[in-house]
Design a protein that fits this description.
The protein has a single domain (8-145), classed as Pnp Oxidase, Chain A (Roll). It is 23% helix and 44% strand. It has helices at residues 8-21, 58-66, 96-106, and strands spanning 24-31, 34-44, 49-54, 68-75, 78-90, 117-130, 140-143, 146-147.
Length: 150
């Protein structure tokens, strides 16, 4: 891996490519100061990160209570961290576009499960991407839900 720093536009392009191709993401929530971290399959519709989890899971409960979700893609040497607001929607009540996007991307339709599931529809607010120490400075590529200038 090179120590050359990527521009904001390169980091944005790399992040979008990762959202379009990666299969799983680490999803972090918290309740009463206790963190909870799980890997989940996800879909990216160009605006939202869409995940599904059992309605009774700690992830679903914590996200519904706080309205926040933190996502991590990649490895410790090429990471993307996304802080997002999240809407928790019963799979049976979700818009078809959300359900179809998730099913097409993950190969799994949680609406068909015996256990009730919810979609976590995450809207990124802040996104940071870096590969190595030289990229720590300038790692924020999205603020307030808007990509930063290149």
């Amino acid at each position: 891996m090179t120590d050359a720093c990527r521009s904001a536009s390169e980091r944005k392009a790399d992040t979008i490519a990762r959202l379009e191709r990666d299969a799983d993401v680490w999803a972090a929530t918290a309740s009463a100061g206790r963190p909870h971290l799980v890997p989940l399959s996800f879909a990216w519709d160009g605006t939202h990160v869409i995940l599904a989890t059992p309605a009774a899971s700690p992830t679903a409960r914590n996200a519904a209570t706080s309205g926040d979700l933190r996502l991590a893609l990649g490895t410790s040497r090429d990471v993307t961290i996304i802080e997002a607001s999240v809407e928790v929607v019963r799979c049976a009540d979700a818009e078809d576009s959300i359900a179809q996007c998730h099913a097409a991307r993950t190969g799994w339709d949680p609406r068909q499960e015996d256990v009730q599931h919810v979609y976590l529809i995450a809207m990124p607010r802040t996104t940071r991407a870096w590969r190595s120490l030289p990229e720590i400075e300038g790692r924020t590529i999205m603020r307030g839900g808007q990509w930063t200038p290149a």
